[in-house]
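Bench notes, afternoon.
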Amino acid sequence: MKAQERRKSIINLLLSEDRPIPGGELSEKCGVSRQIIVQDISVLKGQGFDILSTHNGYILQKSPFKERVFKLRHTTEETEDELNIIVDLGGTVADVFVWHKVHGKLTAPLNIFSRLQVKQFMEGVRTGKSTELMNITGGYHYHTVRAEKEEFLDRIEAALDSKGFIVPEI
């Protein structure tokens, strides 16, 4: 994993947790030493990310990203296309969630921001390692998508809508 991709991964990990993440955990998830994580945190702070270093780990104080939730519906065969549209247009698929009639809201963190991660996710689905949450709600699901600018989210929404993935508001 290159430095820029690793730093993006660190930010996404910090955004996805409601707790401080220890440097050792970040280094394990990113496949680098703790010293590299310390250097990456320093670089990210220099880039304007408000990261707090505590004795329990790192916390991102305030997200610099814009966020939007999309209500979507498509087939399993179209999932890869959906995810690639989002990452190709500068988005990160933060999570997926569904509204189940019995269990309520079921959420899974994804933090997918590259085609490689889309490929890895799809491989897990294809091999039967996992199944998509949307399968329990007839294909209906939501994604929280993050991007650096609102215009990226607008482009993502337009592209998803042109493919017929966006569920129209009633």
